[in-house]
Amino acid sequence: AEHISAELQRLYPNITVELVHFNTKGDRILEKPLAQVGGKGLFTAELEEAMHKGDIDIAVHSLKDMPTELPEGL
């Protein structure tokens, strides 16, 4: 996220970038395998909700934790 922030500021010097860190459900559930509790979407559902609500404009996440299909509208 820091790299993306720096690149955005380099390319668009007049914008303000604020990093908002999320501790997602996927990060919090450590005692069970992901497949048992919802799969990779556990890492992204809260980020997607924040984007839909307009709380954040973009989300940067590890590709390995992304579901294979993005929700409609993202």
Automatic annotation (TrEMBL):
<dbReference type="InterPro" id="IPR022417">
    <property type="entry name" value="Porphobilin_deaminase_N"/>
</dbReference>
<keyword id="KW-0808">Transferase</keyword>
<dbReference type="GO" id="GO:0006783">
    <property type="term" value="P:heme biosynthetic process"/>
</dbReference>
<feature type="domain" description="Porphobilinogen deaminase N-terminal">
    <location>
        <begin position="1"/>
        <end position="74"/>
    </location>
</feature>
<dbReference type="GO" id="GO:0004418">
    <property type="term" value="F:hydroxymethylbilane synthase activity"/>
</dbReference>
<dbReference type="GO" id="GO:0005737">
    <property type="term" value="C:cytoplasm"/>
</dbReference>
<dbReference type="InterPro" id="IPR000860">
    <property type="entry name" value="HemC"/>
</dbReference>
<dbReference type="Pfam" id="PF01379">
    <property type="entry name" value="Porphobil_deam"/>
</dbReference>
<keyword id="KW-0627">Porphyrin biosynthesis</keyword>
<comment type="similarity">
    <text>Belongs to the HMBS family.</text>
</comment>
<protein>
    <recommendedName>
        <fullName>hydroxymethylbilane synthase</fullName>
        <ecNumber>2.5.1.61</ecNumber>
    </recommendedName>
</protein>
